[in-house]
Amino acid sequence: MGEFDLIERYFKRPAKRALLGIGDDCALLQPPDGTHMAISSDMLVEGRHFFANVDPRTLGHKALAVNLSDLAACGAEPLAFTLALALPQIDEAWLAGFSQGLFALADQHGCELIGGDTTLGPLNICITVFGSVPAPAGKSQALLRSGAQAGDDIYVSGHLGDARLALEALRGKFDLPPALLLTTRQRLEEPSPRIALGMALRGLASAAMDLSDGLVGDLQHLLKASKVGATLYTAAALDRLAARTHVDWANAGISDDAALTCVLSGGDDYELLFTAPPSAAAALQAAVLQSASPIHCIGRINAGPGLLLHDKNGRELPTHFTSFDHFS
Amino acid sequence: MGEFDLIERYFKRPAKRALLGIGDDCALLQPPDGTHMAISSDMLVEGRHFFANVDPRTLGHKALAVNLSDLAACGAEPLAFTLALALPQIDEAWLAGFSQGLFALADQHGCELIGGDTTLGPLNICITVFGSVPAPAGKSQALLRSGAQAGDDIYVSGHLGDARLALEALRGKFDLPPALLLTTRQRLEEPSPRIALGMALRGLASAAMDLSDGLVGDLQHLLKASKVGATLYTAAALDRLAARTHVDWANAGISDDAALTCVLSGGDDYELLFTAPPSAAAALQAAVLQSASPIHCIGRINAGPGLLLHDKNGRELPTHFTSFDHFS
User: Fold this and answer.
1) B124 and A128: CB-CB below 8 Å?
2) Homologous superfamily in CATH for domain A145-321
3) What number does CATH give the domain A3-138?
4) Which of A49, A268, B279, B303 makes an SS bond possible with A44, Cβ 3.0 to 4.6 Å?
5) Cβ contact, residue pair A73, B114, below 8 Å
């Protein structure tokens, strides 16, 4: 099967939102009037971002999900995406699974595949995603990393650390009970981008980003962009963020230290990290209800630089928790 | 050097056209009022699209050039691009050369790097490019593959076959004189996207595409999209398209058959293939002067399907020339 048959069979669908989809030299897109276009690109490489034997359906899901998560972080509404794919060989079963997972998530968010490229080569998936952000009177409502102010509360959506716990289990570091492996592995392989929450946070959050490299490392990017510091309540992080599974974690023999590492520097969470002034707290709760995404306040922005971690007794934690990674 | 330092040092420059460039979760772009956005994506893989030892400066040029060529084929004006890069290791000399070649071409076309991704992995370069096409009263002026009509003339810009001749010489198939190797190799490694010509063809060409896989194969995609056939004057192809170097080719011992193969199914030409009604011929010549791109009429569109190749005596050529590739 050649490149053109492959595209025809697994990836070409009639254009709905785009003026012109797959099949010409370019796709044509017209962003809605009065909006700006948000654009992000992520490249996934075998062995680095996923295991060689991963289910192609979940890989199709995740490749798009990590891109949609960037749109969510900006408060953008998904429009379309391009897919460039290097494949070591033409494996029709793999392509069927991959495209099924990809399109299931794309359809869920009304995000249309409009073009791309396929080639032979070491497995590599590069998606570029397009979304729209309202810009009334030319003023963009996009959520940026740079708007956090001293006194703002720091929030995260959902709960953190599951993906990293599953990754370490798959690497053989932990021996998890089957049920816990199943739930955490689903969080690793099929993250749900927080699109609805991101859109609901427009006009409420002072700064936002998505969590892909781990809470502590990512937060420091936000602090740097906003030229502020922060205090993180690690008790909140540990007790609330991993709340759904924390009891299971303890039962599975995961130490508090290991759990804290997963939560603070786990990576692959694809939750939203954002800041908002205390005055916005009530409006935030309403937004959360609207988007059906739980959020937790886990810290506060300080005027001075630096990141402090306080344990449940208000004591500062050892600084090794502020570094990025403890397993590798 | 980590990912963020690498981006800071080699790729981050202040945003000029974009509302928001590198550094946040998304870039923000506002296409000019009354335009549609043209989008294309190309992925280049080591060993398949370029040799491992290629000069990184020319690789940076070519990775963007092949994308800009897609914009040219649509008549789009370049706006911006994203770059996703998988690197086997951090090699600062390589990065310096690559980014230099990339930005030199980008600046030439006012095309701004607005975002992307970097990761460790087998060398892979994925660029997604954005351009604007005027759409007065919502009607796009984009050049498509699907508009060719029976009776239209078929044109190509520049001359063809150089890139393939250089590729085969580098593979050891031909032993070219140094001067011929130099000129053809530059055409292989540093193609010039026909942006000005593409923009000048708006409203004149009935269909257009860029030549990346070879004239005969690419033309058949245009014919299929337009639901027509064509007669190609191979005498014109051989005698005029390769005119600049054809004498040198003969002197270098390249047979007519090998030369015809390079011209008809060479690939990597990045010239424009387009059609226009005979009534547009005078206006076309004016457009060509304006864009400083030579064009040649090499055939005619037929109502009936199929592609015929006629030699200089008007005789049909053996059908093996209509297949894609004769070297591999």
Assistant:
1) no
2) PurM-like C-terminal domain (3.90.650.10)
3) 3.30.1330.10
4) A49
5) no
